Amino acid sequence: MPKGLKNSETLISIAFEENFIMMSNRFTDALFQLIHSMEKAEKRHFKLYIKRSSAKEDLKIIQLYDALDNLTEYDEKFLLKKLSPITKPQLANLKTHLYKQVLASLRLLKTADTIDLQLSEQLDYGRVLYNKGLKLQALKILEKAKEMAKTNHKYNYLAQVISLEKKIETLHITRSSQEKTDQLAAEAIDISNHINSVVRLSNLALQLYRWYIKNGHARNEHDEQDIKNFLKENLPPDADLVTDFYERLYLYQSYCWYAFVRQDFLMYYRYSRKWVELYDEQPEMINVEMGHYIKGMHNLLNAHFDLRNYQQFEITLKKFELFSETQGSKAHDNFRSHTFIYIYSAKINQHLMLGTFKEGLELVPHVEEKLKEYSLYVDMHRIMVFTYKIATLYFGSGDYSTAIDYLQKIINGSPDMRIDLQCYARLVHLMAHYELGNFDIIESLVKSVYRFMAKMDNLTVVEEEMFRFVRNSFNVSPRQLKPELEKFLHKIKHLEKNRFETRAFAYLDVISWVESKVYNKPMGTIIHEKYLESKRSKKRRTASTVS
Predict the structure, then answer these.
(1) Closest CA to 406 of 441, 363, 364, 448
(2) Largest distance between two CA atoms of the chain
(3) What angle in degrees, to the nearest 10, is found between the helix axes of 115-131 and 155-171?
(4) Cα–Cα separations (whole angstroms), residue 17 to 213, 308, 541
(5) Domain residues of the chain, as ranges?
(6) Please, which residues have CB within 8 angstroms of residue 423's CB and are 6 or more apart in sequence?
(7) C-alpha 538 chain-centroid distance
(8) Which residues of 215-236 are buried (b: 16+ CB within 10 A; e: fewer)?
(9) What are the tens digits of pLDDT across the range 167-223?
(10) Claim: this prediction has a pTM higher than 0.85
Protein backbone atom coordinates (compact mmCIF):
# COMPACT_ATOMS: atom_id res chain seq x y z
CA MET A 1 0.00 0.00 0.00
CA PRO A 2 1.39 3.49 -0.86
CA LYS A 3 2.75 5.53 2.02
CA GLY A 4 0.36 7.65 4.05
CA LEU A 5 -2.86 6.25 2.58
CA LYS A 6 -4.45 5.94 6.00
CA ASN A 7 -3.74 9.43 7.30
CA SER A 8 -6.58 11.57 8.66
CA GLU A 9 -6.78 13.83 5.61
CA THR A 10 -7.36 10.78 3.41
CA LEU A 11 -10.23 9.70 5.63
CA ILE A 12 -11.74 13.20 5.41
CA SER A 13 -11.39 13.07 1.62
CA ILE A 14 -13.06 9.65 1.41
CA ALA A 15 -15.86 10.83 3.71
CA PHE A 16 -16.44 13.87 1.47
CA GLU A 17 -16.60 11.64 -1.61
CA GLU A 18 -19.13 9.34 0.04
CA ASN A 19 -21.19 12.33 1.17
CA PHE A 20 -21.16 13.79 -2.33
CA ILE A 21 -22.33 10.49 -3.85
CA MET A 22 -25.05 10.30 -1.22
CA MET A 23 -26.15 13.88 -1.96
CA SER A 24 -26.21 13.15 -5.70
CA ASN A 25 -28.36 10.04 -5.17
CA ARG A 26 -30.82 11.92 -2.96
CA PHE A 27 -31.95 14.22 -5.73
CA THR A 28 -33.40 11.70 -8.17
CA ASP A 29 -37.04 12.80 -8.22
CA ALA A 30 -37.93 16.03 -10.09
CA LEU A 31 -40.62 17.13 -7.61
CA PHE A 32 -38.37 16.33 -4.64
CA GLN A 33 -35.59 18.42 -6.27
CA LEU A 34 -37.93 21.34 -6.85
CA ILE A 35 -39.29 21.41 -3.30
CA HIS A 36 -35.84 21.13 -1.74
CA SER A 37 -34.57 23.99 -3.89
CA MET A 38 -37.20 26.34 -2.43
CA GLU A 39 -36.32 29.03 0.09
CA LYS A 40 -38.38 29.84 3.20
CA ALA A 41 -40.17 32.76 1.54
CA GLU A 42 -41.02 30.60 -1.47
CA LYS A 43 -42.40 27.83 0.74
CA ARG A 44 -44.48 30.31 2.73
CA HIS A 45 -45.85 31.82 -0.49
CA PHE A 46 -46.76 28.37 -1.85
CA LYS A 47 -48.79 27.49 1.26
CA LEU A 48 -50.75 30.75 0.96
CA TYR A 49 -51.18 30.29 -2.78
CA ILE A 50 -52.49 26.72 -2.61
CA LYS A 51 -54.84 27.38 0.31
CA ARG A 52 -56.33 30.41 -1.47
CA SER A 53 -57.14 28.24 -4.47
CA SER A 54 -58.96 25.61 -2.38
CA ALA A 55 -61.48 25.66 0.44
CA LYS A 56 -60.05 22.52 2.05
CA GLU A 57 -57.27 22.80 4.57
CA ASP A 58 -56.44 19.08 4.47
CA LEU A 59 -55.79 18.77 0.74
CA LYS A 60 -53.83 15.69 -0.29
CA ILE A 61 -51.59 17.99 -2.29
CA ILE A 62 -50.53 19.82 0.90
CA GLN A 63 -49.96 16.54 2.71
CA LEU A 64 -47.74 15.38 -0.15
CA TYR A 65 -45.87 18.69 -0.16
CA ASP A 66 -45.24 18.53 3.62
CA ALA A 67 -44.13 14.90 3.43
CA LEU A 68 -41.63 15.63 0.64
CA ASP A 69 -40.38 18.76 2.39
CA ASN A 70 -39.62 16.77 5.55
CA LEU A 71 -37.83 13.91 3.78
CA THR A 72 -34.03 13.97 3.59
CA GLU A 73 -34.08 11.65 0.57
CA TYR A 74 -36.82 10.56 -1.80
CA ASP A 75 -38.73 7.51 -0.51
CA GLU A 76 -41.83 6.46 -2.48
CA LYS A 77 -42.75 3.63 -0.10
CA PHE A 78 -42.87 6.10 2.79
CA LEU A 79 -45.08 8.48 0.78
CA LEU A 80 -47.59 5.73 -0.09
CA LYS A 81 -47.78 4.78 3.57
CA LYS A 82 -48.06 8.41 4.70
CA LEU A 83 -50.83 9.20 2.20
CA SER A 84 -52.70 5.88 2.57
CA PRO A 85 -55.06 4.69 1.07
CA ILE A 86 -53.62 6.39 -2.04
CA THR A 87 -52.36 4.04 -4.79
CA LYS A 88 -49.16 4.29 -6.81
CA PRO A 89 -50.90 5.61 -10.00
CA GLN A 90 -52.77 8.15 -7.86
CA LEU A 91 -49.48 9.26 -6.28
CA ALA A 92 -48.00 9.83 -9.74
CA ASN A 93 -50.99 12.00 -10.73
CA LEU A 94 -50.85 13.88 -7.44
CA LYS A 95 -47.13 14.55 -7.89
CA THR A 96 -47.72 15.90 -11.41
CA HIS A 97 -50.45 18.22 -10.10
CA LEU A 98 -48.27 19.41 -7.18
CA TYR A 99 -45.34 20.03 -9.54
CA LYS A 100 -47.49 22.32 -11.70
CA GLN A 101 -48.88 24.14 -8.66
CA VAL A 102 -45.39 24.76 -7.21
CA LEU A 103 -44.20 26.16 -10.55
CA ALA A 104 -47.30 28.37 -10.82
CA SER A 105 -46.67 29.70 -7.29
CA LEU A 106 -43.00 30.40 -8.03
CA ARG A 107 -43.87 32.12 -11.32
CA LEU A 108 -46.32 34.40 -9.51
CA LEU A 109 -43.78 35.21 -6.80
CA LYS A 110 -40.81 35.72 -9.15
CA THR A 111 -42.46 37.70 -11.95
CA ALA A 112 -40.87 40.97 -10.84
CA ASP A 113 -37.41 39.40 -10.60
CA THR A 114 -36.64 39.02 -14.31
CA ILE A 115 -37.43 40.90 -17.52
CA ASP A 116 -38.28 37.59 -19.24
CA LEU A 117 -41.07 36.79 -16.79
CA GLN A 118 -42.39 40.35 -16.94
CA LEU A 119 -42.51 40.21 -20.73
CA SER A 120 -44.20 36.80 -20.67
CA GLU A 121 -46.78 38.22 -18.29
CA GLN A 122 -47.48 41.25 -20.52
CA LEU A 123 -47.76 39.01 -23.57
CA ASP A 124 -50.19 36.73 -21.72
CA TYR A 125 -52.27 39.77 -20.71
CA GLY A 126 -52.36 40.85 -24.35
CA ARG A 127 -53.63 37.42 -25.44
CA VAL A 128 -56.26 37.34 -22.66
CA LEU A 129 -57.57 40.79 -23.62
CA TYR A 130 -57.65 39.87 -27.30
CA ASN A 131 -59.54 36.65 -26.61
CA LYS A 132 -62.05 38.70 -24.58
CA GLY A 133 -62.64 40.80 -27.68
CA LEU A 134 -60.92 43.87 -26.19
CA LYS A 135 -58.67 44.38 -29.21
CA LEU A 136 -57.69 48.02 -28.61
CA GLN A 137 -56.78 47.28 -24.97
CA ALA A 138 -54.70 44.33 -26.17
CA LEU A 139 -52.84 46.54 -28.68
CA LYS A 140 -52.18 49.12 -25.96
CA ILE A 141 -50.62 46.58 -23.60
CA LEU A 142 -48.64 45.01 -26.46
CA GLU A 143 -47.19 48.43 -27.31
CA LYS A 144 -45.87 48.70 -23.74
CA ALA A 145 -44.46 45.17 -23.94
CA LYS A 146 -42.78 46.08 -27.23
CA GLU A 147 -41.01 49.07 -25.69
CA MET A 148 -39.84 46.96 -22.73
CA ALA A 149 -38.52 44.27 -25.09
CA LYS A 150 -36.65 46.85 -27.23
CA THR A 151 -35.10 48.53 -24.17
CA ASN A 152 -33.79 45.20 -22.89
CA HIS A 153 -32.77 43.75 -26.30
CA LYS A 154 -35.28 40.90 -25.93
CA TYR A 155 -35.92 40.34 -29.61
CA ASN A 156 -37.43 36.87 -29.28
CA TYR A 157 -40.21 38.35 -27.16
CA LEU A 158 -40.43 41.31 -29.53
CA ALA A 159 -41.08 38.89 -32.41
CA GLN A 160 -43.96 37.31 -30.46
CA VAL A 161 -45.44 40.71 -29.60
CA ILE A 162 -45.26 41.88 -33.22
CA SER A 163 -46.75 38.58 -34.39
CA LEU A 164 -49.80 39.09 -32.15
CA GLU A 165 -50.08 42.75 -33.22
CA LYS A 166 -50.07 41.69 -36.88
CA LYS A 167 -52.72 39.06 -36.18
CA ILE A 168 -55.03 41.64 -34.58
CA GLU A 169 -54.43 44.18 -37.35
CA THR A 170 -55.04 41.54 -40.07
CA LEU A 171 -58.24 40.05 -38.66
CA HIS A 172 -59.92 43.18 -37.34
CA ILE A 173 -60.54 46.82 -38.22
CA THR A 174 -58.56 48.78 -35.66
CA ARG A 175 -58.41 52.08 -37.56
CA SER A 176 -54.61 52.00 -37.54
CA SER A 177 -52.94 54.32 -40.05
CA GLN A 178 -51.11 53.13 -43.17
CA GLU A 179 -47.92 54.43 -41.57
CA LYS A 180 -48.50 52.25 -38.51
CA THR A 181 -49.11 49.18 -40.70
CA ASP A 182 -45.96 49.81 -42.76
CA GLN A 183 -43.94 50.30 -39.60
CA LEU A 184 -45.20 47.00 -38.19
CA ALA A 185 -44.25 45.15 -41.39
CA ALA A 186 -40.77 46.73 -41.44
CA GLU A 187 -40.25 45.88 -37.76
CA ALA A 188 -41.18 42.25 -38.40
CA ILE A 189 -38.58 41.93 -41.19
CA ASP A 190 -35.91 43.73 -39.13
CA ILE A 191 -36.54 41.56 -36.07
CA SER A 192 -36.50 38.37 -38.14
CA ASN A 193 -33.08 39.27 -39.61
CA HIS A 194 -31.75 40.22 -36.19
CA ILE A 195 -32.94 36.99 -34.53
CA ASN A 196 -31.33 35.00 -37.32
CA SER A 197 -28.00 36.73 -36.65
CA VAL A 198 -28.22 36.15 -32.87
CA VAL A 199 -29.16 32.48 -33.38
CA ARG A 200 -26.17 31.87 -35.67
CA LEU A 201 -23.71 33.52 -33.27
CA SER A 202 -25.17 31.85 -30.16
CA ASN A 203 -25.05 28.46 -31.91
CA LEU A 204 -21.40 29.06 -32.77
CA ALA A 205 -20.53 30.01 -29.18
CA LEU A 206 -22.40 26.96 -27.84
CA GLN A 207 -20.72 24.49 -30.21
CA LEU A 208 -17.22 25.87 -29.58
CA TYR A 209 -17.81 25.64 -25.83
CA ARG A 210 -19.08 22.08 -26.23
CA TRP A 211 -15.90 21.19 -28.17
CA TYR A 212 -13.85 22.43 -25.21
CA ILE A 213 -15.94 20.59 -22.59
CA LYS A 214 -15.44 17.33 -24.46
CA ASN A 215 -11.81 17.67 -25.57
CA GLY A 216 -10.12 20.47 -23.63
CA HIS A 217 -7.39 22.37 -25.48
CA ALA A 218 -6.32 21.63 -29.06
CA ARG A 219 -3.87 18.75 -28.89
CA ASN A 220 -2.16 19.04 -32.26
CA GLU A 221 -2.21 20.62 -35.73
CA HIS A 222 -5.22 18.49 -36.70
CA ASP A 223 -7.30 19.84 -33.79
CA GLU A 224 -6.07 23.35 -34.57
CA GLN A 225 -7.16 23.11 -38.20
CA ASP A 226 -10.44 21.47 -37.23
CA ILE A 227 -11.40 24.34 -34.93
CA LYS A 228 -10.24 26.97 -37.47
CA ASN A 229 -12.36 25.41 -40.21
CA PHE A 230 -15.36 25.21 -37.90
CA LEU A 231 -15.13 28.92 -37.05
CA LYS A 232 -14.63 29.91 -40.69
CA GLU A 233 -17.64 27.86 -41.86
CA ASN A 234 -20.03 29.07 -39.15
CA LEU A 235 -19.04 32.68 -38.49
CA PRO A 236 -21.45 35.05 -40.30
CA PRO A 237 -19.57 37.10 -42.96
CA ASP A 238 -20.46 40.47 -41.39
CA ALA A 239 -20.08 39.29 -37.76
CA ASP A 240 -17.39 41.83 -36.86
CA LEU A 241 -19.75 44.70 -37.82
CA VAL A 242 -22.54 43.77 -35.36
CA THR A 243 -23.63 46.45 -32.89
CA ASP A 244 -26.47 44.91 -30.85
CA PHE A 245 -25.76 43.72 -27.29
CA TYR A 246 -26.61 40.04 -27.85
CA GLU A 247 -24.83 39.83 -31.19
CA ARG A 248 -21.67 41.27 -29.65
CA LEU A 249 -22.02 39.08 -26.54
CA TYR A 250 -22.18 35.84 -28.54
CA LEU A 251 -19.49 37.02 -30.96
CA TYR A 252 -17.07 37.71 -28.07
CA GLN A 253 -17.97 34.37 -26.49
CA SER A 254 -17.27 32.57 -29.77
CA TYR A 255 -13.85 34.20 -30.09
CA CYS A 256 -13.17 33.47 -26.41
CA TRP A 257 -13.77 29.72 -26.74
CA TYR A 258 -11.96 29.64 -30.08
CA ALA A 259 -8.88 31.30 -28.57
CA PHE A 260 -9.01 29.23 -25.38
CA VAL A 261 -9.22 25.93 -27.26
CA ARG A 262 -6.20 27.02 -29.36
CA GLN A 263 -4.36 28.26 -26.23
CA ASP A 264 -3.98 31.69 -27.78
CA PHE A 265 -4.18 33.23 -24.33
CA LEU A 266 -3.60 36.79 -25.52
CA MET A 267 -6.61 36.57 -27.83
CA TYR A 268 -8.55 34.82 -25.05
CA TYR A 269 -7.76 37.74 -22.72
CA ARG A 270 -8.69 40.34 -25.35
CA TYR A 271 -12.16 38.90 -25.97
CA SER A 272 -12.83 38.06 -22.31
CA ARG A 273 -12.17 41.72 -21.57
CA LYS A 274 -14.48 42.81 -24.42
CA TRP A 275 -17.15 40.48 -22.98
CA VAL A 276 -16.98 42.18 -19.55
CA GLU A 277 -16.58 45.68 -21.01
CA LEU A 278 -19.83 45.15 -22.91
CA TYR A 279 -21.57 45.18 -19.52
CA ASP A 280 -19.52 48.21 -18.41
CA GLU A 281 -20.92 50.05 -21.46
CA GLN A 282 -24.49 48.92 -20.71
CA PRO A 283 -24.63 48.30 -16.93
CA GLU A 284 -28.43 47.92 -17.04
CA MET A 285 -27.87 44.60 -18.85
CA ILE A 286 -26.17 43.07 -15.79
CA ASN A 287 -29.58 42.45 -14.21
CA VAL A 288 -31.05 41.32 -17.54
CA GLU A 289 -28.29 38.80 -18.38
CA MET A 290 -26.49 38.26 -15.09
CA GLY A 291 -25.53 34.65 -15.83
CA HIS A 292 -23.49 35.72 -18.86
CA TYR A 293 -21.87 38.53 -16.83
CA ILE A 294 -20.78 36.05 -14.12
CA LYS A 295 -19.36 33.73 -16.78
CA GLY A 296 -17.54 36.65 -18.41
CA MET A 297 -15.86 37.61 -15.13
CA HIS A 298 -14.82 33.98 -14.68
CA ASN A 299 -13.23 33.91 -18.13
CA LEU A 300 -11.44 37.21 -17.59
CA LEU A 301 -9.95 35.86 -14.34
CA ASN A 302 -8.87 32.70 -16.17
CA ALA A 303 -7.21 34.81 -18.87
CA HIS A 304 -5.26 36.78 -16.25
CA PHE A 305 -4.24 33.47 -14.66
CA ASP A 306 -3.05 31.99 -17.97
CA LEU A 307 -1.01 35.12 -18.78
CA ARG A 308 0.21 35.53 -15.17
CA ASN A 309 -1.22 39.05 -15.03
CA TYR A 310 -0.80 39.06 -11.24
CA GLN A 311 -1.92 42.64 -10.57
CA GLN A 312 -4.89 42.62 -12.98
CA PHE A 313 -5.96 39.24 -11.57
CA GLU A 314 -6.10 40.77 -8.08
CA ILE A 315 -8.08 43.82 -9.30
CA THR A 316 -10.60 41.70 -11.23
CA LEU A 317 -11.04 39.27 -8.33
CA LYS A 318 -11.80 42.15 -5.93
CA LYS A 319 -14.33 43.55 -8.42
CA PHE A 320 -15.98 40.13 -8.67
CA GLU A 321 -16.09 39.72 -4.88
CA LEU A 322 -17.75 43.14 -4.53
CA PHE A 323 -20.31 42.10 -7.13
CA SER A 324 -21.00 38.88 -5.20
CA GLU A 325 -22.20 41.01 -2.27
CA THR A 326 -24.86 42.79 -4.35
CA GLN A 327 -28.53 41.95 -4.01
CA GLY A 328 -28.78 40.92 -7.68
CA SER A 329 -26.06 38.28 -7.41
CA LYS A 330 -27.94 36.68 -4.51
CA ALA A 331 -31.35 36.78 -6.21
CA HIS A 332 -31.26 33.26 -7.66
CA ASP A 333 -29.76 29.89 -6.76
CA ASN A 334 -27.92 29.77 -10.08
CA PHE A 335 -26.28 33.16 -9.52
CA ARG A 336 -25.36 32.39 -5.91
CA SER A 337 -23.85 28.99 -6.65
CA HIS A 338 -21.99 30.02 -9.80
CA THR A 339 -20.61 33.20 -8.26
CA PHE A 340 -19.26 31.15 -5.36
CA ILE A 341 -17.80 28.50 -7.69
CA TYR A 342 -16.02 30.99 -9.94
CA ILE A 343 -14.67 33.16 -7.09
CA TYR A 344 -13.24 30.17 -5.23
CA SER A 345 -11.90 28.65 -8.42
CA ALA A 346 -10.07 31.96 -8.92
CA LYS A 347 -8.82 31.98 -5.31
CA ILE A 348 -7.35 28.50 -5.77
CA ASN A 349 -5.82 29.60 -9.09
CA GLN A 350 -4.24 32.55 -7.30
CA HIS A 351 -2.52 30.22 -4.83
CA LEU A 352 -1.36 27.97 -7.69
CA MET A 353 -0.03 31.06 -9.47
CA LEU A 354 1.81 32.39 -6.40
CA GLY A 355 3.06 29.01 -5.19
CA THR A 356 1.27 29.44 -1.83
CA PHE A 357 -0.06 25.88 -1.87
CA LYS A 358 -0.40 25.36 1.88
CA GLU A 359 -2.32 28.61 2.30
CA GLY A 360 -4.56 27.49 -0.58
CA LEU A 361 -5.37 24.26 1.27
CA GLU A 362 -7.08 26.35 3.97
CA LEU A 363 -9.85 27.04 1.42
CA VAL A 364 -10.56 23.35 0.78
CA PRO A 365 -12.89 22.56 3.75
CA HIS A 366 -15.07 25.60 2.94
CA VAL A 367 -15.15 24.74 -0.78
CA GLU A 368 -16.16 21.14 -0.09
CA GLU A 369 -18.83 22.22 2.39
CA LYS A 370 -20.35 24.66 -0.15
CA LEU A 371 -20.17 22.12 -2.98
CA LYS A 372 -22.16 19.77 -0.78
CA GLU A 373 -24.66 22.55 -0.07
CA TYR A 374 -24.94 23.40 -3.78
CA SER A 375 -24.90 19.78 -4.96
CA LEU A 376 -28.33 20.24 -6.57
CA TYR A 377 -27.00 22.99 -8.84
CA VAL A 378 -23.35 22.07 -9.54
CA ASP A 379 -22.60 20.03 -12.67
CA MET A 380 -20.11 17.17 -12.74
CA HIS A 381 -17.73 19.10 -14.99
CA ARG A 382 -17.29 21.80 -12.33
CA ILE A 383 -16.82 19.14 -9.61
CA MET A 384 -14.14 17.53 -11.77
CA VAL A 385 -12.28 20.84 -12.24
CA PHE A 386 -12.37 21.60 -8.51
CA THR A 387 -11.17 18.10 -7.70
CA TYR A 388 -8.18 18.50 -10.02
CA LYS A 389 -7.31 21.94 -8.62
CA ILE A 390 -7.48 20.65 -5.03
CA ALA A 391 -5.28 17.70 -6.01
CA THR A 392 -2.65 20.07 -7.44
CA LEU A 393 -2.71 22.11 -4.23
CA TYR A 394 -1.93 18.96 -2.24
CA PHE A 395 0.72 17.94 -4.76
CA GLY A 396 2.40 21.35 -4.63
CA SER A 397 2.38 21.35 -0.82
CA GLY A 398 4.09 17.94 -0.75
CA ASP A 399 1.09 15.92 0.48
CA TYR A 400 1.24 13.39 -2.34
CA SER A 401 -0.96 10.76 -0.66
CA THR A 402 -3.95 13.10 -0.41
CA ALA A 403 -3.30 14.33 -3.94
CA ILE A 404 -3.60 10.71 -5.09
CA ASP A 405 -6.93 10.33 -3.30
CA TYR A 406 -8.41 13.32 -5.15
CA LEU A 407 -6.95 12.29 -8.51
CA GLN A 408 -8.49 8.82 -8.12
CA LYS A 409 -11.93 10.46 -8.14
CA ILE A 410 -11.25 11.77 -11.65
CA ILE A 411 -9.57 8.59 -12.87
CA ASN A 412 -12.53 6.48 -11.66
CA GLY A 413 -15.11 8.94 -13.01
CA SER A 414 -16.78 9.40 -16.39
CA PRO A 415 -14.27 8.89 -19.24
CA ASP A 416 -16.21 10.92 -21.83
CA MET A 417 -15.83 14.36 -20.24
CA ARG A 418 -12.73 16.57 -20.37
CA ILE A 419 -10.34 14.08 -21.96
CA ASP A 420 -7.51 16.49 -21.16
CA LEU A 421 -8.22 16.38 -17.40
CA GLN A 422 -8.56 12.61 -17.54
CA CYS A 423 -5.06 12.43 -19.04
CA TYR A 424 -3.35 14.91 -16.73
CA ALA A 425 -5.01 13.48 -13.63
CA ARG A 426 -3.28 10.19 -14.51
CA LEU A 427 0.01 11.94 -15.17
CA VAL A 428 0.01 13.84 -11.86
CA HIS A 429 -1.10 10.61 -10.16
CA LEU A 430 2.02 8.95 -11.60
CA MET A 431 4.21 11.85 -10.43
CA ALA A 432 2.75 11.66 -6.92
CA HIS A 433 3.62 7.95 -6.68
CA TYR A 434 7.10 8.80 -7.98
CA GLU A 435 7.50 11.39 -5.21
CA LEU A 436 6.34 8.86 -2.61
CA GLY A 437 8.95 6.38 -3.82
CA ASN A 438 6.37 3.73 -4.69
CA PHE A 439 8.69 2.25 -7.31
CA ASP A 440 7.08 -1.19 -7.10
CA ILE A 441 4.04 0.17 -9.02
CA ILE A 442 5.71 2.96 -11.04
CA GLU A 443 6.68 0.79 -14.00
CA SER A 444 3.14 -0.52 -14.54
CA LEU A 445 1.74 3.00 -13.98
CA VAL A 446 4.06 4.45 -16.64
CA LYS A 447 2.83 1.88 -19.15
CA SER A 448 -0.86 2.35 -18.38
CA VAL A 449 -0.71 6.18 -18.33
CA TYR A 450 1.33 6.26 -21.54
CA ARG A 451 -1.17 3.92 -23.26
CA PHE A 452 -4.12 6.01 -22.08
CA MET A 453 -2.63 9.32 -23.23
CA ALA A 454 -1.55 7.84 -26.57
CA LYS A 455 -5.04 6.40 -27.09
CA MET A 456 -6.56 9.81 -26.40
CA ASP A 457 -4.04 11.43 -28.76
CA ASN A 458 -2.91 13.58 -25.84
CA LEU A 459 0.87 13.09 -25.86
CA THR A 460 3.13 16.11 -26.38
CA VAL A 461 6.93 16.33 -26.34
CA VAL A 462 6.80 17.40 -22.67
CA GLU A 463 4.94 14.25 -21.64
CA GLU A 464 7.20 12.05 -23.80
CA GLU A 465 10.25 13.53 -22.04
CA MET A 466 8.62 13.05 -18.66
CA PHE A 467 7.92 9.38 -19.31
CA ARG A 468 11.48 8.94 -20.58
CA PHE A 469 12.92 10.59 -17.45
CA VAL A 470 10.80 8.48 -15.06
CA ARG A 471 11.76 5.25 -16.86
CA ASN A 472 15.48 6.15 -16.87
CA SER A 473 15.45 7.15 -13.20
CA PHE A 474 14.93 3.49 -12.21
CA ASN A 475 18.49 2.69 -13.28
CA VAL A 476 20.16 5.86 -11.96
CA SER A 477 21.85 6.19 -8.57
CA PRO A 478 20.86 9.12 -6.33
CA ARG A 479 24.21 10.79 -7.16
CA GLN A 480 23.50 10.65 -10.91
CA LEU A 481 19.87 11.77 -10.60
CA LYS A 482 20.59 15.50 -10.45
CA PRO A 483 22.43 15.61 -13.84
CA GLU A 484 19.52 13.65 -15.34
CA LEU A 485 17.07 16.18 -13.92
CA GLU A 486 19.14 19.03 -15.38
CA LYS A 487 19.04 17.35 -18.80
CA PHE A 488 15.28 16.91 -18.48
CA LEU A 489 14.87 20.58 -17.51
CA HIS A 490 16.96 21.72 -20.47
CA LYS A 491 14.86 19.62 -22.87
CA ILE A 492 11.49 21.04 -21.73
CA LYS A 493 12.45 24.63 -20.80
CA HIS A 494 12.54 25.85 -24.40
CA LEU A 495 9.06 24.39 -25.02
CA GLU A 496 7.46 26.79 -22.52
CA LYS A 497 6.35 29.19 -25.29
CA ASN A 498 5.26 26.51 -27.78
CA ARG A 499 1.46 26.63 -27.99
CA PHE A 500 0.94 22.89 -28.47
CA GLU A 501 3.31 22.06 -25.61
CA THR A 502 1.97 24.54 -23.08
CA ARG A 503 -0.94 22.29 -22.12
CA ALA A 504 1.34 20.36 -19.77
CA PHE A 505 2.36 23.64 -18.11
CA ALA A 506 -1.27 24.83 -17.89
CA TYR A 507 -2.37 21.72 -15.96
CA LEU A 508 0.72 21.50 -13.74
CA ASP A 509 3.83 23.65 -13.63
CA VAL A 510 6.15 20.83 -14.71
CA ILE A 511 9.14 23.17 -15.15
CA SER A 512 8.86 24.44 -11.57
CA TRP A 513 8.52 20.84 -10.35
CA VAL A 514 11.79 19.85 -12.10
CA GLU A 515 13.51 23.05 -10.90
CA SER A 516 12.49 22.22 -7.34
CA LYS A 517 14.39 18.93 -7.73
CA VAL A 518 17.43 20.54 -9.38
CA TYR A 519 17.75 23.39 -6.86
CA ASN A 520 16.56 21.34 -3.87
CA LYS A 521 13.77 23.78 -2.97
CA PRO A 522 10.03 23.23 -2.39
CA MET A 523 7.99 23.64 -5.56
CA GLY A 524 5.98 26.46 -3.93
CA THR A 525 9.18 28.39 -3.20
CA ILE A 526 10.31 28.12 -6.84
CA ILE A 527 6.96 29.45 -8.12
CA HIS A 528 6.83 32.23 -5.52
CA GLU A 529 10.35 33.37 -6.43
CA LYS A 530 9.23 33.66 -10.08
CA TYR A 531 6.29 35.79 -8.95
CA LEU A 532 8.58 38.09 -6.92
CA GLU A 533 10.99 38.38 -9.87
CA SER A 534 8.05 39.30 -12.12
CA LYS A 535 7.12 42.12 -9.70
CA ARG A 536 10.71 43.40 -9.63
CA SER A 537 10.91 43.30 -13.44
CA LYS A 538 7.69 45.29 -13.72
CA LYS A 539 9.03 47.92 -11.30
CA ARG A 540 12.23 48.20 -13.33
CA ARG A 541 10.27 48.61 -16.57
CA THR A 542 8.05 51.26 -14.97
CA ALA A 543 11.07 53.15 -13.62
CA SER A 544 12.75 52.95 -17.03
CA THR A 545 9.64 54.33 -18.77
CA VAL A 546 9.32 57.22 -16.29
CA SER A 547 12.99 58.18 -16.63
Answers:
(1) 364
(2) 97
(3) 10
(4) 23, 32, 48
(5) 38-112, 115-176
(6) 452, 453, 456, 458
(7) 33
(8) bbbbbeeebbeebeebbeeebe
(9) 888 887 665 666 777 888 888 888 888 889 999 999 999 999 988 887 778 877 888
(10) no
